[in-house]
Design a protein that fits this description.
Length: 143
């Protein structure tokens, strides 16, 4: 099987960063999804380029067992924050946090340090939240 480091190197050789990889099941189909990012944004041409490069490699060394569909895309404007790099690169952005206790907090991500995030909430309150208390975090865009 193709490993994450190989995928990361190929993606970076194309001038973008690997954001995340996930395997999901949707409508009884297995999807191997690669998310890529760039300071200049991601367009369909870049996704197609990386797909064209990876497809023949995956024909020889599949990334997962069994039948799957390959998708290469941007993580989107409201992207999930899962890794330390995700949090650090999102400092200064609005985030929406769903806590394990079902509370929701929206505010500006000010800091990520020692497994805790600091959020400046709309009411001016500065909150420090441990990752252990969080169910999920996404960047948030006010439409």
């Amino acid at each position: 099987m193709t490993n994450k480091e190989t995928i990361k190197n190929i993606v970076e050789d194309c001038g973008v960063k690997l954001y995340d990889i996930e395997t999901v099941s949707e409508n009884d189909r297995k999807i191997f999804r690669i998310y890529i990012t760039s300071q200049d944004g991601i367009d369909l041409d870049k996704c197609a380029e990386i797909t064209r490069i990876l497809s023949p490699i995956f024909d020889v060394e599949p990334p997962v067992n069994g039948a799957y569909t390959l998708e290469v895309s941007s993580p989107g404007i409201e992207r999930a924050l899962k890794k330390e790099d995700h949090f650090k690169s999102s400092i200064g952005e609005l985030v929406k946090i769903k806590l394990i206790n079902t509370d929701t907090i929206i505010g500006e991500l000010k800091e990520f340090k020692d497994g805790k995030i600091t959020i400046l909430e709309d009411d001016g309150e500065l909150s420090e939240i441990s990752l252990d208390e969080i169910e999920k975090v996404r960047t948030y865009y006010k439409w």
